[in-house]
Amino acid sequence: MRPALKGREVAVDISDDLPPVEVDELQIGRVLTNLIENALEWTPPEGGIAVGASGSDDTLTAWVENDGPAIAPTDLDRVFDAFWSRRARGSGLGLAISKRVIEAHGGTIRAENRRRGPRFTFTLPLARVAAPR
Questions:
Q1: Domain of 42?
Q2: Per DSSP, what are the bridge partners of residue 23?
Q3: Which of 85, 81, 111, 96 is nearest to 31 (CA)?
Q4: Beta strand pairing status for 59-66 and 118-125?
């Protein structure tokens, strides 16, 4: 995605010591790509995009947010419906597929409006690690 993001301010806040998760890397990679592509489309030229992740006792939380227009409060849940879109182009399937992928991995995904613009946050359960003997 580097060519598409060239010239944009992209802040990354991801710790080097994130706890492990058991996921299909390709599917979760597609979720991140969908979220970043959406952020890129809605971010004005002078705006920025932030990507981050943090871990807790049993969950990894990741997010993508952008400086852009807020999502109408009535649409915050609808953005994950298949074929629903405010975009001029696109199928309206990216966020619906992302939701199914995250839920199939035992996680959740949501959209919210923050001061700087929309934030999409998803959670994934941490990998079960066998106790040392």
A1: 20-125
A2: none
A3: 96
A4: antiparallel
123 touches 53 (CB < 8 A): no
Query: How many folded domains does the chain comprise?
Result: 1
Give start and end residues of each alpha helix (H) in the chain.
2-5, 25-42, 94-104
Q: Please check whether residue 64 is in contact with residue 109, taking contact to mean a CB–CB distance below 8 angstroms.
A: no
Residue 48 belongs to domain with CATH number: 3.30.565.10
Does residue 108 sit within a domain?
yes
The answer to whether the CB of 32 falls within 8 A of the CB of 70 is no
Strand 9-14 with 48-55, pairing: parallel
Q: Is residue 48 part of a domain?
A: yes
Record the tokens describing residue 12, joined without a space.
Answer: 């990354």
Give tens-digit pLDDT for 24-80.
Answer: 999 999 999 999 999 998 898 888 999 999 998 899 999 999 999 999 999 898 999
